[in-house]
Structures are given as C-alpha cells and as structure tokens.
C-alpha cells in the first residue's frame, strides 16, 4: 500500500505541474488572470506532494520492503540504517525522484516568497519551471518508476555496491542535485524574463541568490566528491578527469561565469544578453551532466544501468529544453536592449575576461569529454585524460587568475592604470620572484611551478580589496568575495604542491619491515583479520614516525563485502597541517609478504580546505545579498507607511 | 588607457577579444585532442600495428588463464592479455584492482616497450557488480572482439 501511496502522490504532483504550466501560460495572455492565480498554489501543493512521495521511498528503504523492485535490487536487511536511507538515492530511479523533489521544493519556494518581479514575469517563470519539471515527471513515471512492485518478493535484497556504502554518498549526490536544480531555477527566471522582455537589474537581483546558492552547493558537492574518490578508490588521486567528474565541473564553470555576470547586470545594468545566454548554458550543462551519467553511455561507478531507452529520453528532454530556450533567445535577443557601456579597463572589463576564460575552459572540458563519444561513431576508441586537460585548461586558467588578482580593485565603468600602478607592480614582482626562486630551488615542472607562484599572487591579490577600508564596515558580500578568492589560492596551492612534491613508495613487506617515504618511516607491525556488520577485512597495523618522532598508527584494510561479493581497499590517512600520509594495503604475495603503498602528499588537504573556503565565501555573499534585500524591502515599506501617515495627517489638518 | 577609444568601439574590442579567445580555445582543443587522445587497442591490433614506444595507449583484453606471475620484488605482476588471435605480455608494478583475476577482462593503460612487452602504469578491471566473465572458447574472432568490447568499460 505504501509504495502505491507514493506513486499516487507523484502522479498528482505531475498533474499539478501540468496545471502550473497552463496557468503560467494563460497569465501571459489578456483575460487569463482567472486561471493564472492558480500557478502559485499549484507550485506549493506540488512541492508538498513530491516531499510526501520521497519520504515514502525513504520509508520503504528504512523498512527494507522487498516487494518493491528498487529496494530488492539495491538494499539488504543487514545494512546499517544510514546506508539503507542513503541507498534510496544511490540508484537511478531514487536519484531521479530526489531530483524532481528538489525541483518541486525550489518551485514551491519561489512561488511562496518571490514578489519583487512583475507578476507576468513570475508567471512565465513558474510556467517554465513547470515545463522543465513535467519532462522529468514523465521520465520518472514512464521509464524509471521507483515504486514498481515485484510479483514475488525475494527473501533477501541484492545489497548496495560497497563503494557506495559510505557516508560520502549520504551527502555527495544531494548537494550536487540541489546545485543542478538551483540552476534550473535560474534557467526558469531567464526564460520568464525573456518571454516578458524584463531583462533588468531587478531580474538579476532576484536570480542572484539562486545562482549563488546553486554555485555554493556545486562547489561543496565537487569538493566532497573529489575527497571521496581520493580516499575511497585507493588510487591516491584527487581528480581523474573522469567524464562523470567533468559532468559536475561543467555546470560549476558555467555557474561561476553566470555568478559574475549576474553581478554586473545587478550592479551596472550591463551584459544583459550575455547573462541570459549563460543562464541557458548553465542549466544545459546540468542536463548534459545528467545525460552523460544516467544514460550509461559512459560507464563508471556512477552509471547505474546501461539503458539506451533512458539515455534517449534524457537526450530528448535535453534537446527540448535547450532547443526551446535557445529558440526563445534567438527570437527575443534582439529586443534585449544594449546595456550600460563601460571601458575595457574597468571592473566590468575584468569580469568579461573572467567570463570568456571560464567559457573557454568549459568548452575545452566539454570537447574533451565528448571526443571519445564522437570517435566511437567512427569505430575508433580513445580516452582523453590529464595530458589533454591539464595543459590546455591551464592556458586559459592562468591568465584568468592574474586578472582575478587585480580585477576586484578596479573601479566600475572605467579606471586608469596610474591609479592601480603600485599594486600591479607589487603583484607582478611577486610573481616573477616566486617563479625564479621556485625554479632555482626545486626545479619542478612548468605547470606546478606556475601554479605555486600564482597561488601566492592570487592570495595577496584576493585581500587587496580590504586595503584602506574599515574592516568592520565592509559589506558581508565583499567579505564573501575576498574569502572565495582566497580559497581559490589555497586550492591551487594544494593542487600544485601535491603534483610537484608528492612521493610514493610501493613495496612488498614482511612483518617488522620498515618503509621510508619523504619525512615518514612506517613499520609494519602486524596484519590481522577484522570484521564489520556486513564485511570482513584484512587489516595492517603500521606504526608511523614523522622526522623520527613517533606520531601515529595507520590501519589500512582490504575489505570483502559478502552482498554483493566485492572487495574494496580502505586506505588509512594520517593528516598533518602540511599534508597527508596515504597508506593502502594490497595483496599477499606467495612468499607471505604484503604489498604496501605509501604516498606522502604535501599540502594535499589544502585542495579541499580551499574548496570549502570558496563555498563559504559564496554562502557569505548569499547571506549578505539576502539580508540587504530584506533591509531594503523593510525600508521601502517604512517610506510608504510614512507617506501614508503624512497624507493622513495632512488630510486631518485640512478638514 | 581606454580614454582614447570611443565607447562604441570599446564594446567591439571586448567582443573581438571574446570571439578570438573562444575560437582559439576550440581550435586548440581540437589540435590537442588529436595529439593527446589515448588510443584503445585490442591485442591483435597492437601486434599488427605497434604504437610508438613512448605513446600512451590502452590495451584491453582477457587475462589468460594461468598467466599471472608475481616477480621477485613482490609488487610487479606479469601476465598475458589475449583476444583469441594474439597474445601480449604485460608488466605492471603496483597493487592490482580487486576484480583483476585470470579469465576476466582488463584494460591496461601504459605503453608498448621495444621488446613487445606492454608496460602498464594502471590497470582497470570492471567495477560493475553485475559483470560476469564468460568463456571465450568456441567463439569466432569477431564474437570474441564483441565480447571483449562489451565487457570492457
């Protein structure tokens, strides 16, 4: 019964999305106001119904109801509760239900709170949101029903891929989905603004929190995904240029560009058409990502099922949404008037360079990701990896970082070089000195060398906007920018230093053997079996010394899960402020020795600290903007009240 | 700077910069992809047409039964990858993935040494839990090839 209840809620939600689309469309026509008032309530009730449907699925997974096909094939009664729940979205159908639910919640939220835009623009926005949602409802209900029953319930479930039985899974997909869906809201606003010809700074201010929020969540999702791959896959890398990683990176790049251009539109009423275009591109990239991951066209841990039907369905949705939006853009772009003008040497100019560089990197990643699919059509199988992405991406990344260091101190509209000569000379000098010093002392490769030097320059440049300003009275949003830009420097430093200075040892060791790697010495003390709730493992005990000081113990494991039967490597991480020692246990050789792999990774953790700083900066900017909006609204209301009072007094004294 | 140029031209300058950068990025990507893409070979293909010794390629095939040998150092594995037509010796130093077993599919990333041994820097075994290795005997070369291509990646 419970599964059917969830399915009915989902069908009703889909019907309401249809109503919302119709109401939004009628709202654009003369005399359609009677039906148009239904758009907002439809969005609200839809959010509620989707929430109910998703909780039903969680309930089914919590109780391990094996008569439901999805539970039987993805869960197991002996799994810990947290993994039972996270297993609800650790599969294709459940994750699509999560997507639709988050989208409905976002739609309900804008319907409930957003009153700043002209009502027609809001109706068009809600209509666009419903249109996108309907496609996903159809996808769920017709080709990926999460509530499907089995004729005969099995005695026990199939279990969940052990790689996915991790706390990372509980948070990684939802954060990314919230980010993707936040971009769908931005997309709906763009379509709404285009349809009603309202590409204004007000529209930018309304859209900005959604872009900022989506961007923060994508940042966190990518950071978490990178760390998860780093410790769970046991290969010691933090970015593999895997198609699935690229699928999350591309929307992030587009959102980063959009976030900056929307600020220009909000502050200066410039870059109108470009911002609208980026809004379309950002959500397109979310959908391309979903297509690549969910169609099974590319295989990885993330591709749950190779199903051409589903792939075609998402491709059709993609074509419909993007094609539709581009068609509206093509017909309406001419009516988007040219915005305010600005000089090349200005804050706007710097932001244009940021946008162009980010778009170029986006194009490079997109081409590299799709190239294997393209060649496969000609029966040539290739893979594209770091030798392509790293140098080609760097050609655009590094100039962009230089602009990042000086852009924030430029003035809007136009600036003169004489005014910023000092900081530019200081930063340029710093870059040169750092590069020469690093080259002379370390002799590392060109990419990490530039990375380290630029990390220093960006770090100094990011705090320049604080110069000569009262730290107490600085707006929260400016703090957000400073912290996010500083985070970029921290991440870059971590990446470059790990690439340049990591050391690796791979040995076959007997009990009692000592392995040295970098400043560490590790002694293999023992290897013994251990057991967990649904796995058994072989665990090594290593005593670690850092520069001769005994500091810690590391316990890497080789784990065997029995349902489904799979083996995973659980690495041991020993973290210091200046890096991590990464230890993995391999197989036992015939002569009884154990394979051990140790990596000393200097400052590798800074990659993820930086990612979190970037997200924190975005969150601060979001809070600053929202608080500012609320204050402005309250102040506006007070003025209206006072005017009404004055009018009343004037009327009173006149009588 | 900028004061000498008319506002209308300023806009044009930015547009040109943007176009040049984006088109440049596209051309650069196309050129780099042709040079940096990592080609996939089956054993019979790599034997027939050997890639340059320093070229990074991928070799995919079935690990021959009884061919896995661990070297004296305990961390180097030698085995033979075949597709029914040709057999290629592979050497890999590192921890092999859990699903790397004799008689199942594997993709080795690396390059072909001058002596005909494939030096792998990374081994990929199928991650999918539903994956079942099947017997290759009694199949034609085309069937074997289709089988390998279906089980790899």
Largest β-sheet summary of chain B: 5 strands, mixed, barrel
Helix content of chain A: 55-70%
Spell out the helices and strands of chain B N to C: HEHEEEEEEH
What do the pLDDT scores of chain B average to? 78
Order of helices and strands of chain A: HHHHHHHHHHHHHEHHHHEEEEEEEEEEH
Rg calculated over all Cα atoms of chain A: 27 Å
**Residues in β-strands, percent of chain A:** 5-15%
Count every beta strand of chain B, where a strand is a DSSP E run of 2 or more residues: 7
Structural class of chain B: alpha+beta
Q: Name the biggest interface.
A: A-B, 62 and 45 residues
- The DSSP helix count of chain A reads 18
User: Distance N terminus to C terminus of chain B?
Assistant: 55 Å
User: Helical segment tally of chain B?
Assistant: 3
Oligomer: heterodimer
Mean pLDDT of chain A: 88
Shape descriptor of chain A: globular
Poorly predicted tracts of residues of chain A? 299-305
Point out poorly predicted stretches of chain B: 127-139
Report on this model:
The complex is a heterodimer of chains A (655) and B (153). Chain A has 655 residues and is an alpha+beta fold. Chain A is built from 18 helices and 11 strands. In chain A, strands 3, 4, 5, 6, 7 and 8 form a 6-stranded antiparallel β-sheet that branches. A 4-stranded antiparallel β-sheet of chain A has the order 2-11-10-9. Chain A is globular and about 100 Å long. About 8% of the residues of chain B have low confidence. The termini of chain B are far apart. Helix content of chain B is 31%, strand content 28%. Chain B is α+β, with helices and mostly antiparallel strands and 153 residues long. At the A-B interface, α13, β1, α14, β2 and β8 of A face α1 and β1 of B. β1 of chain A pairs antiparallel with β1 of chain B.
